[in-house]
Automatic annotation (TrEMBL):
This is Ribosome biogenesis protein ALB1. It comes from Tolypocladium capitatum. Residues 1-11 have a biased composition (Polar residues). Residues 1-92 are annotated as: Disordered. Residues 60-69 have a biased composition (Basic residues). Residues 29-44, 78-92 have a biased composition (Basic and acidic residues). It comes from the Eukaryota.
Length: 92
């Protein structure tokens, strides 16, 4: 009886590709666990030492950082004025 491969099964090439892909995914998962990077962050491009490119943990752009700096400055000024008024009322 001749040795003939099952024609309905996946080819050697596909089997090899599937194994390679599974190996890469396994390695990626273990790296995430070692470096404590969440899965959502890693899907957004986070790597050890790199923040994700989008989402809540993404690095702020320079423009947004400047705007945020202005807003925090205004908030500090408002707080200082409010505290100043409260102190003046207490003195008299």
């Amino acid at each position: 009886m001749p040795s003939v491969k099952n024609p309905n099964g996946p080819s050697k090439n596909r089997l090899a590709a599937r194994a390679t892909k599974a190996k890469a995914q396994r390695q990626k998962r273990s790296q995430e666990a070692k470096n404590k990077i969440s899965k959502t962050d890693s899907t957004r491009g986070a790597r050890p030492g790199l923040l994700p490119t989008s989402g809540p943990r993404a690095k702020l752009s320079a423009k947004k950082a400047r705007k945020l700096e202005k807003k925090t400055g205004y908030a500090m000024r408002r707080r200082m004025e409010a505290e100043g008024e409260a102190e003046m009322k207490g003195e008299s």
